[in-house]
Structure formats: C-alpha cells, structure tokens
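PROTOCOL LOG
Step 1. Enter all chains and additional molecules of the complex.
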Amino acid sequence: MKIKVLKDILGANEQIAERNRRLLDSNNVFAVNLMSSPGAGKTSLILQTIKKLKGKVKIGVIEGDVSSSIDAEAVGKEGVPVIQINTEGGCHLDANMIGSALGRIALQDIDLLFIENVGNLICPAEFTLGAHKKVVISSLPEGDDKPFKYPLMFHVADVVLLNKIDLSPYLKFDTDTFSQTIRGVNKKVEFFPISCTTGQGIEQWVSWLLTQMNRR
Amino acid sequence: MKIKVLKDILGANEQIAERNRRLLDSNNVFAVNLMSSPGAGKTSLILQTIKKLKGKVKIGVIEGDVSSSIDAEAVGKEGVPVIQINTEGGCHLDANMIGSALGRIALQDIDLLFIENVGNLICPAEFTLGAHKKVVISSLPEGDDKPFKYPLMFHVADVVLLNKIDLSPYLKFDTDTFSQTIRGVNKKVEFFPISCTTGQGIEQWVSWLLTQMNRR
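Step 2. Run joint prediction.
Step 3. Record the structure below.
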C-alpha cells in the first residue's frame, strides 16, 4: 500500500516533469539538475560555470533550499536571474515546484538553466524535474564509499563531478575505488575530478556541458 | 491535508519512540541518536568512542544505512554487538525500525547504545527514535553556513560536534560564525570541535557523554 502511494506520487511527478521539459525545449533552454550532499559544492560549481561562460551563454538559476536564501544571493551577485525555492523543511525539489518557478523566469532570455537541488544524497534522486541532465557532485572529504552507500543517486547521474580534489594531500581517498564503484552502478556515467577552489577540471566540465547543449 | 497526514505519522512515531525509551530505561541502557550529512564522520566517531571506553562501558550499535553494511562491518571488528538496518532507499530511521532492532539486541549486556542514523541533514531531524540524546556531527569541509541552511537539525541537537578540524589550515571556515549560528537556533546546545583523525577533542566529547550517562 505504501509502495502504491509512492508510485502514484512519482507517476504524477513524472507527468509534470514532462510538461516542464516541453516548456524548456520550446524556449530552447538546456536545464541541469544539480544534486549533492550538503556542502559538496553545488553553488561553487554554478559560480565557476557562470564565470567561464560569461558573454557566451546566458544562464539562469533556480535555487532550492530547505530555508534561507544565501545561495541565491551569492549567485544573484553574478548578474544572472535567480529564482529561490524554499521547501520549508522538504528534503527535495519536485517537478511541481520547478513548474511554478519556470513561470517566473523569462525563459526566452536564457540558454542554460541550473537547478540547484536541496543538499541531500537520497530523496532528490527519486524526483525527476524535467531537466536534460542530472549532475551529481561528490567531494573528497565525504569519503570514497559514497557511491556504494547511496547507489540510487549515482545510478541516476549523467555526470559525477568529484569536487575538492585540492584537499587530496590531506585525506585518505582512493579515486580508482570511487570511479570503479560509480561504473558498477552506472555504466554510462561521465566522471570529472574538479576543484571549485583552484579551478582544476572546470575546463573539462564546461566543455562537456557545451557539447551537450550543442548536441540537442 | 498533507500536513495532517504528516502529523499523524509523526504522532504515531512519537508513541513508538516512547515505548523504545521505556524499554531502554528498564534495561538501564543510555541511547544516542547520531545524525549528520553523508561522510561527516558518524562511524569514525563511534569507532573513536569505542576505543576510549573499552573495558569501562559496554557499547552496542545500530547502523542505519540506505543500503550496504560496510559501516556495520567496521564497527563489528571492534568486538561490539551491531545490528544493521537497511532502509532500502528510505531517508531516515524511524521509531518502528528501532523498536524492531532493539528486539534483536541483548540489552541487558550493554550500557550505551549508538544509533547511527542515515546520512542526511534533513529528514532524520523530524523522527524521534526514543534515544536519550541527539548528537549532530557537522564537518569543516561542509562549510560554516550549514546551521543556517538546515536549521531544524541543529535545533533538535543536544550536542553539535564539529569534526575534521585537522583540515582547518586548508579551508575557509569561521568557527565563531558557525557556533553563533547554532546558538541562534538552539540556546541550550553543547558544542565540541573534534577530529576523529587526530583524536583532538574526543576526550571532551567522551567526558560529556559519561556525565550524561551518570546523571540519569
């Protein structure tokens, strides 16, 4: 019974997500659903990407947070349009929240939309939003066992970015184990080690992103 | 309507949590509900505490994970009884799961029970388990804004442990901002900076824990 209810919720979510996708496509907007644990670097990645693509790609951002608007303020300082969603305790974004937010963005004025999900390595993986790609950020300090312990998140990812590699001299982290475990749950996933602090690997990430946008 | 259903679930959970507490008390077992983001150091803290209290306090552990049993295996190597709960995708432990697990532990043989919750800074905060104290671990790499962005978790905490302070030379983290934000959402909280890698602060944490156990 419990499972049936959950399936109903996910089924309804899926339909709204498809509607969101059609709206994005009709406006020629490429959307990325960005997911990670709290503090893995979602906002930092968005800020780095905005800097790299300034003058080339028009970016918009939807910021999902349990509460507060500090991420939206940080992104807004870069001069891009930002919509804040506060879930008021909710542990993930859903397609309905994104549908409402899309109605408040001038979609004709942007090419690329980042949707920063709530910081959570579990629940956001279950809710499709209508974005074209799912990007998961993991970070060195979280440990190399995360894909093994939270498999669904790494299974649904199109790309996994391993952030904070500048900390590798100070941490025990086996990058081979990490990448092999990801491939174990997801054969097609792309994998880029990055540092939003030093900028390492950001070029490769942005290049992949532009290729995906042009391929549509 | 949505809110009413959630209240019913939480109300039912509360009743089972009270039953768990009575069972723990009648067996003279002190229980700690340990919560954090993925990779903040819950298992490391349990391992450090087991080492410190070996021969003095009989410890048992309930390991909550979405999937896998690697934490339970790591703890089991220390020779303490461990019960694994796999939530199969579920994002938090609830009182019912703990009730079942308590039936599988020889409670008369332990003094202190660690309940390692699922790695998630949101949902576990809403579900009381029947433990005597709620301990939240935050870690330096997650950033000093976490109490501001995930207020409920820091609001329900009896203690906040700030882990990975050995990484402070390599990270921007304002400990004063962090501790002040915690006090802003929770006047009575205890706060200990620690490192499970170097052992710094573990003495203070264990001393606090023993005081709480003796105070009952």
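Step 4. Note key features.
Chain B is about 40% helix and 20% strand.
The helical segments of chain B are 2-26, 42-53, 70-76, 95-102, 146-149, 151-156, 175-185, 202-215.
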